[in-house]
Design a protein that fits this description.
By secondary structure, this protein is mainly alpha-helical. The protein has a domain at 17-55. Helices cover 72% and strands 0% of the residues. It contains one helix and no strands. The protein has one helix at 14-59. The radius of gyration is 28 Å and the shape is rod-shaped. The N and C termini lie far apart (93 Å).
């Protein structure tokens, strides 16, 4: 066995590839979950603003 790294050349062992793939899947799932939660939060805020605008508009008496 040499110390210059020739024996380590080539493709990574399968165990490293599996770990890398599972890490990528975890990151993908986390990213999708984050996007969905941001969309839900934005929708809730938009609905809240629309509701507050409707309530505020209904409290103003016409003609005064």
């Amino acid at each position: 066995m040499r110390l210059d790294g020739i024996d380590q050349a080539g493709f990574a062992p399968r165990s490293h590839a599996r770990v890398r793939r599972s890490r990528m899947m975890a990151q993908l799932i986390t990213s999708v979950a984050l996007m969905l939660s941001i969309a839900v939060a934005a929708t809730a805020v938009s609905i809240g603003i629309a509701h507050a605008g409707g309530v505020a508009a209904g409290t103003v008496k016409p003609g005064k």
